[in-house]
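Hi V.,

Quick status before I head out on leave. The structure for the redesign project is tokenized and pasted below; the design run finished overnight.
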């Protein structure tokens, strides 16, 4: 007795010539500002803005390419109505830096170690004591190069990491104090 077992198998194959896999690591900066006059809080605001291509390249080089990391970063203010661009650099920032504050140099960005994809100077806010009547339009974060502490310096190969234009210009007078917090995150802001 002969038995026939019906078997049927179908196979198919597909060639993917350009497989697509995306991993997105967003980086952003969140800025918080406080303005004090005669020791009293007169205004506070918060916003995000741009991280520059120069800043991102510096971060990637220090992390993956073995370039020496910048040890100290500095905060500064700017006094013209300028919207920061990702293409801005330390040498050509696009804005005019304000030097109308009592501190003798740019203010140190004293950040904490990263926790949960975030580093910030919230525990040590950058403090600017104004010495003139001015209109301030924004703040920036820079470092590296030969003279990153020098107010108004754009020479020496520094890095402009991020900048934030205020939603509305802020009028300051001598002895006003501006506190600036910059939080850098590898998550959506």
């Amino acid at each position: 007795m002969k038995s026939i077992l019906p078997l049927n198998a179908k196979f198919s194959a597909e060639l993917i010539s350009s497989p697509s896999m995306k991993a997105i690591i967003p980086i952003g900066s969140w800025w918080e500002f406080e303005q004090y006059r005669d020791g009293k809080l007169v205004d506070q605001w918060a916003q995000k803005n741009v991280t520059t291509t120069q800043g991102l390249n510096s971060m990637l080089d220090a992390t993956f390419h073995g370039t020496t990391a910048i040890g100290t970063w500095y905060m500064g203010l700017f006094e013209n109505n300028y919207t920061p661009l990702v293409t801005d650099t330390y040498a050509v920032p696009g804005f005019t830096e304000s030097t109308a504050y009592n501190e003798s140099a740019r203010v140190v960005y004293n950040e904490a170690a990263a926790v949960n994809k975030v580093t910030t100077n919230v525990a040590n806010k950058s403090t600017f004591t104004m010495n003139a009547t001015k209109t301030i339009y924004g703040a920036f974060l820079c470092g590296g190069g030969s003279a990153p502490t020098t107010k108004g310096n754009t020479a020496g190969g520094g890095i402009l990491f991020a900048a934030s234009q205020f939603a509305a210009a802020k009028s300051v007078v001598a002895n006003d104090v501006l506190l600036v917090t910059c939080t850098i995150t590898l998550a959506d802001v």
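Above is the designed sequence. Residues 28-185 form one domain.

G. will cover questions while I'm gone.

Best,
W.
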